[in-house]
């Protein structure tokens, strides 16, 4: 038996999305208190989205507690039902709480430049030398590995993994509701209480009673709308492009032997790609923003300019980008940028976003996403898009959006070469 039991008194967190988050287990309470989990308070859930929707300052800490709470409520519905084994409860709750523990500052831009992977760091934190690991080990020597396996979806009990990671799981339900709440948008809401009440355990995965189908349709539509209205917002992406290029410029300067006024010591191990767990855990958004602040004063014109842009929200402008025209215009545009003394490797960026709102199982595609299954009154199981016309209409349709980002102000301020400026503008307009 585990050394952990129930808390003498239940702890509660006030939460604007779920009203209250209830903690009854000593294990969960101790995990929340670790330095690795507290670090998530310094990582924003939506990266640069706050640049567009100023309310979106919520953190991975809020979201992780929310995913834990939804999971706890699902397990209350499952208690005593066939296929659900109560002995999996603490494992499922721990995996829910820790599923995002490896995220770093401005994850997207950061991972692209430094080649780190938050899933690998999640594994490293759970299995490595950390406070989280110390606590998990006290449950049993094999418990940390089991938590990691659930998060990586390799755990043999598929019902457990589907609660945390499938097309309708605790993670997605929390982030949709939470991101809608904090951005203040009117889409993204759906009736989670209703969905929780109609979730049923089977041997393979969570299924939904047919009577809850319309609530699930609403959930899928809200996911679709949130992607295009919030997550792929072109202005947030512009801010992300700039952060990306700040990291890129710093790395390039370091490799060229540039002498920094303010040595970026917190990034050294990332430049050398020899990052220890401690190095990784130290780097949060507070440190990152500190460097953006001081690099504004660097002598390197590009680094300084990009930092000033990000901090003062003087972002790149964008235009639709047609990849078919890429072949003709791209080299020409780069050449013109060079003539205008604007380095295209930092100031001319194509960014693409794509989403598949709902997909049924197609082996080998999209990470083999598990479809949503309905259980009919006669006990038969049907895949959702076969029952729902609404879902059928948007199933398997991938939408991709390409945008070209560039600093319009630098181009239009270029007084020296009017001809170059005219040519650039002409190309940008037809792209
Ligand atoms: Ni998450």
Architecture blueprint of SSEs:
Layout: E1 6-15, E2 19-25, H1 26-32, H2 35-38, H3 60-78, H4 89-98, H5 107-114, H6 118-127, H7 131-139, H8 143-151, H9 158-164, H10 170-183, H11 192-198, E3 199-201, E4 206-209, H12 213-231, H13 234-255, H14 268-271, H15 277-282, H16 285-295, H17 301-312, E5 317-320, H18 326-339, H19 344-347, E6 349-355, E7 373-375, E8 381-383, H20 384-387, H21 389-394, E9 399-406, H22 408-412, H23 418-430
Parallel strand pairs: 4-7
Antiparallel strand pairs: 1-2, 3-4, 5-9, 6-9, 7-8
Helix pairs in contact: 1-4, 3-4, 3-10, 4-8, 5-13, 6-8, 10-12, 13-17, 18-23
The structure holds nickel (II) ion.
Report on this structure.
This protein is α+β, with helices and mostly antiparallel strands and 431 residues long. It folds into 3 domains: 225 residues, Hypothetical protein af1432; 83 residues, Up-down Bundle (Growth Hormone, Chain: A), CATH 1.20.1250.30; 76 residues, Growth Hormone, Chain: A, CATH 1.20.1250. A hairpin with a 4-residue loop joins strand 3 and strand 4. Helix 4 crosses helix 8 and helix 5 packs parallel to helix 13. The longest helix has 22 residues. It is globular and about 75 Å long. The structure holds nickel (II) ion (NI). Nickel (II) ion (NI) binds next to helix 3 and helix 10.
| Average pLDDT for all residues | 93
Overall shape: it is: globular
Strand tally is 9
CATH class of the largest domain: Mainly Alpha
Main sheet overview: 4 strands, mixed
> Uncertain regions: pLDDT < 50 for 5+ in a row?
none
DSSP helix count?
23
Strand arrangement across the biggest beta sheet: 3-4-7-8
Structural class comes to alpha+beta
The CATH superfamily of the largest domain turns out to be Hypothetical protein af1432
């Amino acid at each position: 038996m585990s050394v952990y039991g129930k808390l003498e008194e239940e702890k509660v967190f006030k939460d604007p999305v779920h009203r209250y988050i209830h903690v009854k287990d000593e294990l969960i309470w101790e995990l929340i208190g670790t330095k690795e989990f507290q670090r998530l308070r310094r990582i924003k859930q939506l990266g640069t989205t706050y640049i567009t929707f100023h309310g979106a300052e919520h953190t991975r800490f809020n979201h992780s507690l929310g995913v834990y709470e939804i999971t706890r409520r699902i397990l209350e519905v499952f208690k005593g039902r066939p296929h659900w084994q109560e002995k999996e409860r603490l494992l499922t709750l721990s995996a829910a709480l820790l599923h995002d523990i490896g995220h770093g500052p401005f994850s997207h831009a950061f991972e692209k430049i430094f080649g780190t992977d938050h899933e690998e760091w999640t594994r490293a934190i759970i299995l490595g030398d950390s406070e989280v690991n110390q606590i998990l080990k006290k449950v049993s020597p094999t418990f940390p590995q089991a938590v990691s396996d659930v998060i990586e979806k390799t755990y043999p009990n598929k019902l457990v993994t589907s609660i945390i990671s499938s097309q309708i799981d605790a993670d997605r339900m929390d982030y949709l509701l939470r991101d809608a709440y904090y951005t203040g948008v009117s889409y993204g809401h759906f009736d989670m209480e209703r969905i929780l009440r109609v979730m049923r355990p089977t041997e393979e995965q969570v299924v939904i009673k047919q009577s809850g189908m319309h609530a699930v349709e609403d959930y899928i539509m809200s996911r679709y709308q949130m992607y295009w209205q919030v997550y792929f917002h072109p202005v947030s992406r512009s801010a992300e492009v700039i952060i990306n290029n700040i990291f890129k410029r710093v790395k390039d300067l370091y490799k060229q032997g540039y002498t920094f006024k303010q040595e970026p010591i917190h990034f050294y191990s990332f430049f050398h790609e020899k990052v220890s767990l401690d190095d990784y855990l130290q780097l949060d958004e507070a440190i990152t923003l500190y460097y953006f602040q001081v690099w504004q004063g660097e002598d390197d014109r590009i680094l300084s300019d990009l930092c000033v842009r990000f901090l003062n929200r003087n972002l790149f402008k964008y235009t639709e980008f047609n990849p078919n025209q890429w072949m003709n215009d791209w080299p020409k545009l780069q050449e013109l940028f060079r003539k205008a003394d604007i380095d295209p490797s930092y100031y001319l960026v194509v960014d693409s976003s794509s989403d598949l709102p709902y997909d049924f199982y197609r082996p080998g595609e999209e990470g083999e996403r598990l479809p949503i299954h309905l259980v009919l009154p006669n006990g038969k199981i049907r895949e959702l898009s076969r029952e729902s016309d609404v879902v059928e209409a948007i199933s398997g349709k991938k939408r991709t959006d390409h945008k070209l980002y560039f600093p319009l102000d630098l181009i239009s301020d270029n007084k020296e070469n009017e001809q170059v400026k005219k040519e650039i503008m002409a190309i940008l307009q037809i792209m």
